[in-house]
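Input sequence (304 aa), recorded before submission:
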Amino acid sequence: MCHLVNFLIRKCIFAVIMSKFRETITVLIVSILTIIEVTGCYEPSDIDAFDSGEPAIVIEGLITDFDSTCSVIVSQSVAPTDSANCIFINNATVIIRDDLGNTAQLQNIGDGKYQTKDIIGKPEHEYLLTIEIDENSYNSIERMPKSINIDSIIVEYQSTRTFFDTIGYYISIFAPKTEDSVLYYRVEIERNNTLLDGYSNLWIYEDNHKTDIFQMDIPQNFETGDSLTIKIYSLTKPIYEYYFGLSKQFNINFSNIQPPLTNPESNINPTALGYFQASTVNSFHLIVGNEMRKVVKIKDTPPQ
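Predicted structure, token format:
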């Protein structure tokens, strides 16, 4: 019996050792594969952003039904090692036309910015932006989407810290389903007269109508007494995809599945950096109170 027990004990010990050996080998293999994934190579493509460093034209255009001023910024990119952010272009000819036959030339006001108040955006109408720089011409056509139908805004206090959020008040925006097509939005918030700007505040949403009520959660905490102006921009699919591509440049993903950083796909032709956006805008103002949860019906909060 003792010999049998000793044999079984030795067998068990050997099995444990082999098990640990297999675990070690498995961990080693997984670690090697992980290193290969993280440092994986890629084949350069024609759209790689940082290969040449050649200057490119950058166009940022916006027309809405909310602001009476149509604005376009024209600049030229610089090399990543340059101390300047960009070179503003003030000698361009910037013209906007609508499908109603109206035409306006935007006036340069300095720092590459061009403006006009002669054309105001209207939902479901098309706008053609044309920009001439020296002997080169750029253009873009956008059809302004319809305005979103907001039902309510909920302001709710979160008393615990999570991996993604901290303590404070959070905002959710609700809109009922109005049509079958996919809709796209961007939310912009001004807190205490200061715009929450930057790539970390690039809040875009895709309403694919999987539910009857569409919910937009804002990943930003607020405090009691904050005065907020919330603007919701309707977007076309190309503009949504532009912002989505822009946001991906600032989300780190340690995997070779993620492609190298590339410039977001523009809706400017021929290819230039930037975008031309035509949007309806819903704007609301509210002050964060001290209630744990507050439902603000939009009929009680008229647009600003």
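Checked by second reader. The chain has a mean pLDDT of 81.
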